[in-house]
Amino acid sequence: MTYRTPLVTRIIVPAFGIGVDGTIIGASIASGHKGADPGGILLGTLFVTAIAAFCYRLARLAVIVDDDKILVRNYFMNHHVAREQVDFLGRGRPSFGQGETITLETGRASIPLDLLVSQQRAFPEPKRPSSTYRRRENARRQLSLWAAGVDR
Question: What are the extents of the domains in the chain?
Answer without folding.
Answer: 2-59, 83-148
